[in-house]
Amino acid sequence: MKNKSYYITYKPYNVINQFTGEEGQITLASLFDFPKDVYPVGRLDLDSEGLLLLTNDTTINNRLLNPKFKHEKEYWIQVDGEINEEALAKLRKGVKIRIDKKELTTRPAKAEKLTETPNLPERNPPIRFRANIPTSWISLTITEGKKHQVRKMTAAVGFPTLRLVRVRMQGLYLENMQIGEVRELEESEVFEKLFGQ
User: Fold this and answer.
1) Is 45 part of the annotated catalytic residue set?
2) How high does pLDDT run on average in the chain?
3) Strand, helix or coil at 166?
4) Are residues 176 and 164 in the same domain?
5) In the chain, how many domains are there?
6) Residue 68 pLDDT level (bands cut at 50, 70, 90)
7) Domain region containing 48
8) In 3-state terms, what secondary structure has residue 150?
9) pTM of the full predicted structure?
């Protein structure tokens, strides 16, 4: 019986969500010497950062990716402009976005404006600063994971995403991890934080 391995990492910006890529692409293999049978659970786009779970435990993969289970994923998002309550209310209710040329309405979400800039490591490269255009930060928690969903949601309410960081999957938190850091977890901790068991 093979050993089960569980890792979390703070995936950096501009690192692809896999272990092999085309020439010039930076992959997850650059972060750590992961066992050969370990793979990321779900996806985090090239231009997104944050919490990524990697494991060879197919039970976790199957449960987290099964659409009938509504697992929460929380993102901290820096948006272009000073977001207002009207836009947040639309995000909470669900917005229309297009995925693969089909229009769909997102599930109800939790959306709040962050009153302070979150304590995150600086992104490399940093977001382009424009003195005359304000930005704001929101927390958005969703229970689905369509392609580019979060970016499409903020754009749909008029506030394009500038920086996107996943900070939580169920009870697993990014906490104070640094960009590119990898931590190995125990099986019991992973199951308790993801599934409460």
Assistant:
1) yes
2) 93
3) strand
4) no
5) 2
6) confident
7) 6-67+172-195
8) helix
9) 0.95
- β strands within 16-170, DSSP E: 39-40, 49-55, 73-80, 96-99, 102-105, 110-113, 135-142, 161-169
Instruction: Let me know: does 6 contact 186? Beta carbons within 8 Å.
Output: yes
Place of tokens 């580019």: 148
Alpha helices in the chain (DSSP H): 58-65, 85-93, 149-156, 187-195
- Round to whole Å and give the CA distance between 124 and 173: 22
In this structure, the answer to whether residues 81 and 110 fall within a common structural domain is yes
pLDDT band for position 91 (cuts 50, 70, 90): very high
Which residues have a Cβ under 8 Å from the Cβ of 138 and sit 6 or more positions away? Answer: 76, 77, 79, 83, 88, 91, 111, 112, 113, 114, 154
Half-sphere exposure of 31 (CA within 13 A, CB side): 29
The pLDDT > 90 percentage for the chain reads 79
Higher-scoring residue by pLDDT: 13, 126: 13
Of 33, 45, 57, 100, the catalytic one is: 45
